[in-house]
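Hi V.,

You were right to ask for the full record rather than a summary. Here it is.
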Amino acid sequence: MMGGWTTAGGWRRWRWVALTLALLASAPALAGDEQVQVPIPLQASLLAKVAIYDQNFAARSGDTVNVLVVYKKGDGKSQRLAQQMRDALHELKIAADRPQKVEVEALLSPAMLASRCRDGRVAIVYLAPGFSATEVHEIAAALAGNDVLSASAVAADVAEGVVLGFEQISGKPKIVVNLKQAKSQNVLLSSSLLALAKVYR
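Predicted structure:
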């Protein structure tokens, strides 16, 4: 069973998340993409820490933590930022007891992405910026019923059905969660984490 927020280890991780969020408050926005409110390397760091507080994460990931970073086909900026996320995640360890594999792919279709997540036992799928609200909504619809944690570089995508994102409100960082979509994707986040988050229900 995953360590909870009430254990000694859980409180240490909680303090780490709180400290990272405090650092985000002074972090500059990523130059070249006004949609991305939190720099990609810091998103990667938060994602790696927050993901393990999904109580279904260990069962989902199995022996290897598979992460899929998806970009918009034909969009050079989207691909570049996807590669930046991949590189940032390569420097991190999401689960201390298991190896991880991070892959970058262009989105061919929402249905194919859903199939890829199921067949490849993908624990986390991350959307690079570049997708329209309609495209994100279609991706979320395809992922509903899948066992996967979805996240996005763009906080506004959470309102369209991505489970997790990061934004800045009045200069302060905020975790953003789509609780309804989380339930549909078998993601069960700690209540302590949700207390910090902006939640779409």
